[in-house]
Specification:
There is one protein chain. The protein is an all-beta fold. The protein has a single domain, classed as Beta Barrel (Acetoacetate decarboxylase-like). It has no helices and nine strands. The strands form three sheets. Strands 1-2-6-7 form a four-stranded antiparallel beta sheet, with no helix packed on it. It has a three-stranded antiparallel beta sheet with strand order 3-4-9, with no helix packed on it. The chain has a two-stranded antiparallel sheet with strand order 5-8. It starts with 8 loop residues before the first strand and ends with a strand.
């Protein structure tokens, strides 16, 4: 892994069913003046667990939860390139990045404890 310093470059890809859907490259410039707000507000999450017999789901919930505890390293700002690719069932390639705001990198540790059930799928 690259060092956390000016000029460091990180790459990431997203794939499903052996098909690349997205890729990103972030180049760090400098420590950020602010720490950002990721995990500072409740977020929606899916909780799914396959049934033991392989037939459907044993757990299927949409929940809202927020961080009970948080620790974060220093935030860095930088530049990012994002590419979205064609997919047979999605229109990702139609989404364009016309006006990027910024790119950030930060190491975080979060404890999740509790939440609110928004919807149950079973």
């Amino acid at each position: 892994a690259p060092r956390i310093e000016s000029g460091a470059v990180f790459g990431a890809t997203l794939a499903a069913a052996d098909r690349r859907l997205a890729e990103a490259v972030v180049t760090l410039r400098e420590p950020s003046e602010t720490d950002g707000f990721v995990n500072a507000h409740p977020m929606a999450h899916h909780r799914q667990l396959p049934a033991i017999d392989g037939k459907g789901l044993a757990l299927d919930e949409l929940i809202a939860s927020g961080a009970a505890a948080f620790e974060g390293g220093r935030a860095w700002s930088g530049d990012a390139d994002l590419a979205l690719f064609d997919a047979p069932t999605e229109e990702l390639a139609e989404l364009t990045v016309d006006e990027p705001i910024a790119a950030y990198y930060r190491q975080v540790g979060v404890t999740w404890n509790g939440g609110t059930l928004l919807e149950r799928g079973l």
